[in-house]
Amino acid sequence: MKKIIFLITVSLLSIKGFAQQTFSLTPKEKDAILYMREEEKLARDVYDSMYIKWGVNPFGNIRQSEQIHMDKMKALITTYKLQDPVYKNNDKHGLFTNALLKNYYNKLVAAGSQALPEALRAGAKVEEMDIADLQERIKQTQKPDILATYNYLAMASGNHLRAFVRRLKMLGINYEPVILSKTAFSKIISARDTRGGYGRWN
């Protein structure tokens, strides 16, 4: 009987230890999840504004994709029992708890409202920023679920970046990277779209 109780106790402690290990985050992992949740909101809100202003794709389609990205980040927030920064503002358009992202949003919308080419450039810049931030945060974790989410978002952002660059090219404009290195940018642009990232958004 004592042996059975001992085995049950050991099993319960093992489960508890596994749960603590699974659901514990480093400060960097926590900050990254919260930041990327709002950064995906930034993308969605900017594209919403640009679609209302110009009424063209790829803004109309990609903004729907960004909502899915927000939902994926929300799933991580739920899994790790974090306080959702988007919920604090009731997901109101253009509002962010992160002051840096709020400033980015204002500048991107202001620039994109001047002319369609500027709007497309703003979209490409958002995707560059998203890819660069995801690449940095991928280095900060080893948790499979977080890595899977970040890699999925990075793949989709590559598709979106190519879509904006293609649309600019249709207008006779060759887009030059402003955040990514030219080598990294060229590698992304020369790659094929991936269906998991929602394909082509011309």
TrEMBL record:
Transmembrane residue ranges: none
Domain called DUF2202: residue spans: 29-191
Coiled coil: none
Presence of the UniProt keyword Cell cycle in the record: no
Gene3D superfamilies for this protein: 1.20.1260.10
Keywords noted in UniProt: Signal
Signal peptide as annotated in the record: 1-19
UniProt xrefs under Pfam families: DUF2202 (PF09968)
Record protein name field: DUF2202 domain-containing protein
